[in-house]
Amino acid sequence: MSLEPHRWAVVSTIKAPNKDILNFAAHYLSLGATHLYLFLDFPDPEAQEHLEKHAHIRVTHTAPDYWQARGRRPQTVERRQIENIKTAIEFARRDDIAWLGHFDNDEFLHVPSHANVGMRLTRLDNDVMCARALPVEYLVPEDPDYTGPDQFKRLATPFARRRQISMRAYPEFGAKVSGGFLSHQVGKSFFRIVPELMAPRIWVLSQGDIRQ
Question: Could you state, in order of their start, the residue ranges of all structural domains in the chain?
């Protein structure tokens, strides 16, 4: 198997309104994704019809018979995501994809206009199996008439520094809201596609005794 180092794809398990699904797909295609592997966690014939018209989007409707063929339907969305990532890894191998990113439908990778995702991944050392994209979170304005630029916050990466900032900014509940983030703080990852057995998780890749 000879993988093109600049070819990358995205996998997502999606249950969202039609417009959100299409916006998600358009965003990652605009960034240069070679393929999208979308697993619809809920029937959406209209979205599926639009998506399947694109040559680089593979849509899988995870209907009851889909899970029945795999033994059973995992009860939690996290377990379904992991199973879908495993399936997408097989798709990626067949499509000569070098890197597979996992993102939810409300997670949009931000890339500077001059940057190229595929080339950035290509520059990583060969022993790097997982590349993480750290999260930023949208700040909702208190003023409903606010017309200024959108504001976002990101984490201070050292945990001790993050906790210090949290306690200073939010004295009453800073200990419970790390970095002021309401969502998860781990970020999402790109997995390097290799011939060996891969054990993906939602945020990381586990290979044998090594977790990266």
Answer: 8-134+187-211, 136-180
